[in-house]
Design brief:
Layout lengths: L10 H15 L4 H10 L4 H9 L18 H13 L9 H12 L2 H13 L4 E5 L15 E5 L2 E9 L9 E7 L13 E7 H4 L4 E5 L9 E11 L3 E2 L5 H7 L1 H29 L1 E2 L2 E2 L4 H29 L5 H26 L10 H9 L8 H12 L7
Parallel strand pairs: 1-4
Antiparallel strand pairs: 2-3, 3-7, 4-5, 5-8, 6-7, 9-10
């Protein structure tokens, strides 16, 4: 499908996008995902189909081969992916990581990378930020990049770098000035685009990190890896700001996925409650089954309004940090509420692979921890919105 560039969040166009994504996802039913989950395999066919249909290039401007759409359309795409029972976590990072190149890359960098990302010739799926010792305390990361002539030498380690084994490029945040030598604590970090096709085996080592869900998580090790200075994005030492610049998009897109998950769980539970007969009556007749489904529905619809508000503000160029964070917070909680309800509605069958509930249950739990934890969002709201003292 060629996504209409004039979509601009028009209801009819969003419906067209939803229908097109649903049609694509119908080719990847539960059994496809179960097989990938059992084998811990990457859904290459699904990612290629999304790329070919131009959905992964939705936010890339038309001049670089993308669709030039807004975050509202991108959120609609990812919501529908999750609502169909698929998993956008295999590729969603490309939508928000490429924004750092778009906003802070040079004209040459954008012309070189963005068209290839839009066409699928290159995959930008890996985001190297989190480290074992610092976690979400990004300003304390230890991976260093030291300038030597026309290149940087990178040493250090990243963890929970999803999709590194299935990506051509990595967006890397590394320290270029020692923490004790910067004037502002937010200075001294720089952003690089690492070509992993060249780096692998030449200073870059990737180690799979098995986890609760099939998210292609890895640890990444840098040992005197040479990265061309031409691959640095923007000004040296200002990388933390560049990364923060893309966080609102990340929050909104993840929140939209949570809404899609919640709606999948609610539909799954509703259908089962209507069909499952125990004691000569459908279990959906019992208020003990009805009420949790109704509560999950109400929570999801409320969260969806927050996601839509944040997306509209982002597309309008209005500062939306609080809204993006609140959208991610309440959408992830609504998804988890719906997941727990759905599993409970199915009883023992909810634990059976063939129903897909247990797989989605594991997948949606992630989003209260990543890409930022619930507690950090609450701390942000407390300090920056409510004016309470800084807690960390």
């Amino acid at each position: 499908m060629t996504i209409p560039a004039e979509a601009a969040a028009d209801g009819d166009d969003l419906d067209q996008i939803r229908a097109a994504v649903a049609a694509l996802c119908a080719n990847f039913p539960g059994e496809y995902w179960r097989k990938k989950d059992r084998a811990r395999a990457y859904p290459t066919e699904f990612v290629e189909a999304l790329t070919k249909s131009e959905f992964l290039g939705a936010l890339i401007p038309e001049e670089y081969g993308g669709s030039g759409l807004g975050i509202t359309e991108a959120a609609t795409i990812l919501e529908e992916v999750q609502r169909a029972g698929c998993n956008g976590g295999a590729c969603h990072a490309q939508m928000y990581t490429m924004g750092t190149i778009l906003r802070h890359g040079s004209p040459e960098q954008k012309a070189d990378w963005l068209p290839k990302i839009a066409s699928g010739e290159l995959r930008l799926q890996a985001f190297g930020v989190t480290e074992p010792t610092s976690g979400t305390d990004t300003l304390s990361l230890r991976t260093t990049a030291e300038r030597e002539d026309d290149h940087y030498v990178v040493n250090g380690q990243k963890v929970w770098t999803s999709r590194a084994e299935h990506s051509d490029l990595m967006l890397l945040l590394a320290r270029t000035t020692a923490k004790d030598k910067v004037v502002k604590r937010t200075d001294g970090l720089s952003v690089f685009v690492v070509d992993m096709r060249e780096a692998l085996g030449n200073g870059l080592t990737i180690k799979p990190l098995p986890a609760m869900m099939n998210h292609a998580a890895t640890e990444v090790f840098f040992d005197d890896l040479k990265v061309p200075a031409a691959n640095r994005l923007g000004e040296e030492g200002k990388g933390f700001r560049y990364i923060l610049d893309g966080m609102n998009a990340e929050r909104i897109l993840i929140a939209s996925e949570c809404i899609g998950d919640a709606r999948w769980f609610i539909e799954k539970a509703r259908n089962y409650a209507n069909e499952r007969v125990v004691f000569d009556r459908p279990i959906g007749k019992n208020q003990g089954i009805q009420f949790p489904i109704a509560r999950a529905y109400a929570a999801t619809e409320a969260a969806d309004l927050m996601v839509k508000k944040a997306a509209a503000m982002f597309d309008a160029g209005t500062p939306c940090g609080p809204e993006a964070n609140m959208a991610k917070l309440i959408a992830s909680e609504a998804a988890w509420q719906a997941a727990d309800m759905c599993l409970q509605t199915h009883g023992g069958f909810g634990f059976a692979e063939e129903y897909d509930v247990e797989r989605k249950f594991r997948e949606t739990r992630l989003y209260q921890v990543a890409p930022i934890s619930t507690n950090l969002i609450l701390s942000y709201i407390a300090e920056h919105v409510l004016g309470l003292p800084r807690s960390y």
